[in-house]
Amino acid sequence: MSWTYHQWVADLSWEYTAPYSDALGLDYSTASYSQFNLNVTYTGIKHWTIYGGVNNIFNKAPPYDPLWVNQTYLTGYDQSLYTYTGRYLQIGAKYKF
Known about the structure:
With 97 residues, the chain is an all-beta fold. It is built from no helices and seven strands. The strands form two sheets. It has a five-stranded antiparallel sheet, with no helix packed on it. The chain has a two-stranded antiparallel ribbon with strand order 3-4.
């Protein structure tokens, strides 16, 4: 979803993964997963773009998947679907001349 007001732009994104069952014949299923990200940009200063954002707003961890507990990194979540870095902030500025 995107919202624009004069020189302001805000974007809210939702990343969703549906629940899934094990393909190897084990009897378990993995829960669905949602992650929300918010980014804001301001272009009201000549030649400048100022931006910031929050990824994984609710600091939600990927769903537990027992198949990945015994993998090399012992994460407990499917690394082919998720990259868990937790909530993080980003800010920056660009100057065009």
